[in-house]
Amino acid sequence: MADVGDVLMSVLSTIRVPKPGDRVHKDECALSFSSPESEGGLYVCMNSFLGFGGQYVDRHHARSGQRAYLQITRIRKAKKEDDNNSGSGHPPKKKPTRLAIGIEGGFDVEQEQYEEDVKVVILPDRQEVTSEDLATMPDVVRERVSLSMAGIMAADSVSHTLQVQQWDGEVRQESRHAADLKQLDNGVKIPPSGWRCEVCDLQENIWMNLTDGKVLCGRRYFDGSGGNNHALLHFQETGYPLAVKLGTITPDGADVYSYDEDDMVLDSKLPEHLSHFGIDMMTMEKTERTMTELEIAVNQRVGEWEVIQESGTTLRPLFGPGLTGMKNLGNSCYLNSVMQVLFTVPDFQSKYVSNIDKIIDEAPSDPTQDFKTQVAKLGYGLLSGEYSKPAPDPGDENGASEPRGDQIGIAPQMFKALVGRGHPEFSTNRQQDAQEFLLHFINMVERNCRSGPNPSEAFRFLVEDRIVCQQSQKAKYTQRVDYIVQLPVPMDQATNTEELHEAERRRDEGDSSAPTVRAQIPFTACMAALSEPEVLTDFWSSAVQAKTTATKTTRFASFPDHLVIQIKKFTFGLDWVPKKLDVSIDVPDTLDLSALRASGQQPGEELLPEVAPPPLMTPDVEVKAPVLDDSTVSQLCEMGFPLEACRKAVYYTGNTGIDAAMNWIMSHMDDPDFSAPLVLPGCSSGPGTTPTESLSEEHLATIVSMGFSRDQATKALRATSNVLDRAVDWIFSHLDDLESMDVSEGGRSAAESEGGRDPPPGPRVRDGPGKYELFAFISHMGTSTMCGHYVCHIKKDQQWVIFNDQKVCASEKPPKDLGYLYFYRRVAE
């Protein structure tokens, strides 16, 4: 074997020193979830700085020819007991005093202590070089290799830069109302104690309005505790924006809330504002918990959200294939829950996990940026069982604590970074809506499965909308693609109305012992609300050429293999403040939707003529513009949407009213041409269109080379004024509209490639009987999708299993009535 010094000299030109901007993957393997803590450690390529576990480093060497790798191995140290430990043998933990992570006074994110071993390994013979060995080598070798080793170890790993190591929830902004706050000279003076709500006599959670000195109770919390919303109602009646929480005032400050800005704020003139009502900050003492302390208490109590997390019983931990936990990367429980469920669907297993060797063999030079590779890596990590092992707990040497099901699990850092890249929400560490992430991920799968099996087809179905003009009795049928059934919650159908009213009455009277009563809504009532006809009062009928009343009925034109039902728990109050409906719904284990299958045009039924609204006539000239409902356009503009988008929403929904137009806007907001001017059908040279003859052949060729047909490329470029980047975005956001052109190899349509056969009438969907069985559901805890926690329950081998981030346990009482997303699979007949 050659001398190691000579070998190092021969590969010296391939050893790089990391520069600013280089991505150093020293915490996670690019192709698996191996890390420096794994057996054998992690091998970091000293040229590309990609990390590889022991099972993949030889493969990378064979493919790239790279020979020099930095092997990083970490072994967890045994925890030392604190000198000031408690009698239990555990050191006392400091109570958090600040709503923050990773800074003084915040939540203590315990950092494991490791012994780290670093050395250079030369493949294929695995010759090892330590720092001590370098001391005896020529200067040129020693300097280059030492600098590279030091640079790799000193560089922030990609995963580190993606994580928020420090987060401070107490950083508050100065209120825009503070400097010029109007205060009434009404003679009100506030005593230093003994405060009560002026409306309901509540003595806790009391706030004083800084404009008129009104003393009122705060908001009601999601569990029924807190106040009765009287301070909020006072703002809605008066517009007086700032309030201070009485009992939190000290010489250092107080809790100030801006109802107008909907956030905790700073008031630099607080001493002056308080003295107006006779309050001397310097003499006040804190008697109430601040909002920060309340939020800290809630965050510490996350594991006590009894019902959904089943924390009232001792749950049996489960380990093995398909029972792998996922680490929470900071509000990533929404992602964890969705991906756990998706990889129980056979389509996703066969697409990504069954073919993982082929996918890895075909991976590009930087697999960390390849969608298919990272999804396959995640799927294999969840299903293989390799990472489904109990997490070591050095602090529990006697094994006295109850088994919690914590696992080593997997940390989906590369996956989260990749699927969230460029997205304004999913690229952050804020909590997100699991339903929105599911649709976002399905959209990414659609983009990346233009050829070969598309697992998202398992959820895809067609919806048929039937609109009947009540004046002419003529009908209009439209079909659209969907992936999720959104089930309304008819609160007026609650079966325990008397209990709800009684609890509400007691809370209004200030009875702090009033129980929290959850509305009981029958599932059949939700289905009835979904299927009943909707009355359209402002429908433009092409049959009578005027506005009239119509009814709209929605039915399934096809039934998917797997059906996702979203319970529409999140809504807006009259004040447009998001709120969550606290409901219990008796969701069934089996479901038969056969009665909701669309039947198409009825015998003898006449269809509405395909005629656009008439053009607007002026005395001197005919303008090619549709007749639009100005009031609807104005309402949409007042909500902050672009004028042209509002005009298109009203036009494409046939002047059927604000609700239909709003739905159009919400489903088209991500379109690249969302704000482009409205162009009427048949108008070939209006704003936003480009005649075919002027399209760039280079742009057409670029889009065709991506696997689209020339017709599709033409349509995309014409819709985006011949701008290539916008056209590519447009074509990917209109996949469902283009499915009827069915792309095949070489950029030709299926009709061209198979002898001129007519293209299929619509998007590819699977169909079958509408009978289903429940196999998974995702639950949410908290007051809105922007906060709280998600867990999922999945039925595996007739046993319900709860996946709560890294905890995986046998479920004793699956709370099927409290779910948010329900997943059904077709029952084989």
Tell me the number of strands. Answer: 31
Report on the biggest sheet.
Answer: 8 strands, mixed
Q: What integer value in Å does the Rg equal? A: 31 Å
Averaged pLDDT, please?
A: 80
Unreliable stretches = 81-93, 97-103, 163-170, 296-305, 396-404, 615-625, 681-693, 740-762
Helix content: 25-40%
**Rough outline:** globular
Multimerization state: single chain
Strand proportion, as a percent range, falls in 15-25%
How many helical elements? 25
CA(first)-CA(last) distance: 66 Å
Structure classification: alpha+beta
EC number: 3.4.19.12
Family: Belongs to the peptidase C19 family.
Keywords: Hydrolase, Metal-binding, Protease, Repeat, Thiol protease, Ubl conjugation pathway, Zinc, Zinc-finger
Biased composition (Basic and acidic residues): 498-510
Can you offer a commentary on this structure?
Residues 498-510 have a biased composition (Basic and acidic residues). Residues 324-827 form the USP domain. GO terms for molecular function: cysteine-type deubiquitinase activity; zinc ion binding. It catalyses: Thiol-dependent hydrolysis of ester, thioester, amide, peptide and isopeptide bonds formed by the C-terminal Gly of ubiquitin (a 76-residue protein attached to proteins as an intracellular targeting signal). The active site is at residues 333, 789. The protein has 829 residues and is an alpha+beta fold. The strands form eight sheets. Strands 16, 20, 24, 27, 28, 29, 30 and 31 form an eight-stranded mixed sheet that branches. The protein is globular, with a radius of gyration of 31 Å. Mean pLDDT is 80; it is low at 81-93, 97-103, 163-170, 296-305, 396-404, 615-625, 681-693 and 740-762.
